[in-house]
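Continuing from yesterday's entry. The apo prediction looked reasonable, so today I'm repeating it with flavin-adenine dinucleotide included to see how the binding region is handled. Same sequence as before; SMILES copied from the compound registry.
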Amino acid sequence: MTLKYNVTVLGAGVSGLSTSLALLEGYPGRYHVKIVATHLPSDTHIDYTSPWAGAHWRSYADIADLQQQAETTPDAGVMFLTGHDYWDVKPKDFQDPWFKAIVKNYRHIPKKELPVGVEFGIDYTTVALNAPKYLKYLEQRFLKAGGVLERMTVPSLQALARIPHSSDGATADIIINCSGLGSRNLFGVHDHQMFPTRGQIVIANVEEHLWPIAKQFTMERYAEGGSMGSGTITYVIPRDNGEIVLGGTMQHYNTRDTPCEETTRAIVDRVTRTRPDLFSTCKVLRSCVGLRPNRRGGVNVSARVERLDWNSAKLQQEHPERAVVLVAHNYGHGSYGYQSSIGCAQETVHLIDANLTELARLRDVVTKEGKVAARI
Ligand SMILES: Cc1cc2nc3c(=O)[nH]c(=O)nc-3n(C[C@H](O)[C@H](O)[C@H](O)COP(=O)(O)OP(=O)(O)OC[C@H]3O[C@@H](n4cnc5c(N)ncnc54)[C@H](O)[C@@H]3O)c2cc1C
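Holo prediction written out below.
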């Protein structure tokens, strides 16, 4: 018979929800999953990155990482469209990206189709999603699969492991840290490689008769220096509700939580210069700010069995083995938390699976130690 494990996941962003779903849907009946988080889908807060994402697919992965997938139900807010990547100056060492082999309709854009000021471009079929809608969609799937969601702030991994999992007071066998930037301050993690990269975006819409054109493409424009360079990045991502995300900024270590009006104007100006036919009459609905959870050295996707000392005499006496917990991490996705969400979730779950035997072994050792100690 398959054992049922109690899993507590920290974080209800795209990483926590995707990882929880990979457990529940990948291994039906094996895991009982509870998510605890300060912020839940529908919340908007500077410390909760996921609602602010564009979110489109521009791969930074190497050729070995093909675990990029898309969801295709209307509730998910996912659209397939054409992705245009533009360079003001063609990179001297330009090579076709690795994903040329897996995307549909990849091509170098003919010169006559390029916007004014753009020297080189590629386009291909890509994916964009409505981030807040996608989070709600994941949340619904999670609840439907039997997951439990609880709003709670925890100070440490130890506190996470101590949370009662069910009415009988059982605690977690496995804890998974998907706390994004929260991993900087979480005791037991304190990851100093984490740093915020501020992104300001503008939510706009175009005139109604232009929407059928605007909804067909995403755009990302790379500048070499000048007014379009230095900390700025120009992009356009439509959402399935008629809104369009215009971006943006990449401001490392900047945590200002309010949008800057000057930046909003600069973003609209840059986008308009690229596509005046669509955006010269666009209407700004609001400006927003999010902090990308960047990590020097890349994401932390890992798992290992740890003995978390709880300092609880009762626990030490009655269930010493419960201080031995399988601890997994899935955080630090920077600018690509959505596009890497499914692949990283699957890898995390794979690592958990690979450590279950070690969890059982160490718990056994601790139980025997406890019995010996009790006899002394
Ligand atoms: C402007 C902008 C544009 C972006 N565009 C894209 C894009 O086009 N494509 C793409 O793939 N990605 C994009 N991203 C990046 C993407 O949004 C992030 O990588 C992703 O959302 C990170 O998700 P996460 O679940 O790891 O973290 P978060 O969404 O930040 O979730 C962290 C969770 O942990 C909880 N938490 C943290 N600490 C604690 C604690 N101590 N106790 C309890 N709960 C805690 C929080 O409450 C929250 O629920 C963009 C980001 C921004 C800001």
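Comparison notes:
- Residues 10-16, 37-39, 48-50, 52-56, 153-154, 178-182, 186, 199, 201, 248, 290, 292-293, 331, 333-339 surround flavin-adenine dinucleotide (CB under 6 Å).
- Helices lie at 14-26, 131-144, 157-162, 211-214, 261-274, 276-279, 313-318, 341-375.
Will overlay with the apo model tomorrow.
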